[in-house]
Specification:
globular, mainly alpha, Got1, 128 residues, membrane
Length: 128
């Protein structure tokens, strides 16, 4: 089992609540307040989990500046009060930022019993 420090445990909780508030805000027809709270909690939780310095290094790498500007610009636009436009920008920035992690995540999901068998179906797994 992975041992976590207390600040990493707090960060996991903040990130989890952030994702919950973002999801709940989208379900409730893009509620500005819930989306804003979710954004703040998600970014704060990420900072607690990986540390403040590593968070800045992750977001402000030269090859990730476009993705960072879309993601943080979307957060700013949600905070200003245009939730649909902000969420669209955030999602695009999120996919640009974390696209390197998706193959590892799919590889991990393939090892889970039920989900792995679904991902290995011929029309989902793609050409071999």
């Amino acid at each position: 089992m992975i041992s976590l420090t207390d600040s990493q445990k707090i960060g996991m909780g903040l990130t989890g609540f952030g994702v919950f508030f973002l999801f709940f805000g989208m379900i409730l027809f893009f509620d500005k307040a819930l989306l804003a709270i979710g954004n703040i909690l998600f970014v704060a939780g990420l900072s607690f989990v990986i540390g403040l310095e590593r968070t800045f290094r992750f977001f402000f790498q030269k090859h990730k500046m476009k993705a960072t500007s879309f993601f943080l610009g979307g957060v700013l636009i949600v905070l200003i009060g245009w939730p649909i436009v902000g969420v669209v920008l955030e999602i695009y920035g999120f996919f640009l930022l974390f696209r390197g992690f998706f193959p590892a995540a799919v590889g991990f999901i393939r090892r889970i019993p039920f989900l792995g068998s679904l991902l290995n179906l011929p029309f989902i797994s793609g050409p071999s």
